[in-house]
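TA notes. Do not distribute before section.
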Amino acid sequence: MAQLGVELTSTPLSEELVAVAPTFKTSVPGVFAAGDVCNPMQSVALAVSSGSVAAAAIVRELTVELSV
């Protein structure tokens, strides 16, 4: 995480999480994060859900890029 230079955040449950927007986009352009690296609640269901949202956001970003 530190090598990518993404912004980190913390919660009472975890000291080092990747800070993400609602679409799981990080502070570094083109880098998305999902699952346990950005959510203090370790859960397979939450990881799958956040991964699906991140994937949709990536597809949307690529589609907009290609259409310009």
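Switch to the second chain here.
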Amino acid sequence: MLFRLLTLFIAVPLVELALLFWIARHLGGWETFSLVLVTGFVGATLARAEGLKTMQQIQRDMAEGRMPGDMLLQGAMILVAGALLVTPGVITDAVGLMLLVPMTRHAVARWSMAWLRRHVTVTAATPPPGASSDTPRRYVASRVSRVEREEE
């Protein structure tokens, strides 16, 4: 896992830089610089608007007594999208815009939840019998563990 992350953090900036140089060679340096600035500004503005809508929906869900699990995932994706959009680069901007568009964000959220259901198991422990509310808690409230798929 560490190797994959390290590869990602090295490969993505190198590919982004090569792509920006290629675009600059065809469009010009100032135009490429302007493109990076405009996508960052527009992306931050869109991320803020989508984030506010999501926050309002989370507040409505909580006021109605519903757990806003899906909307929390949507909010996290919007946060990631905003970070990607303010990062200079064409590929990160494309992924960030994809996460900001509600239709594609919902599709990515469904895929993410399906992946989590396949790979993560959540177990919860209950307080020991007879434990009072003033007893210090020395038990695990919940634990997440990765489950490896068995080969069929």
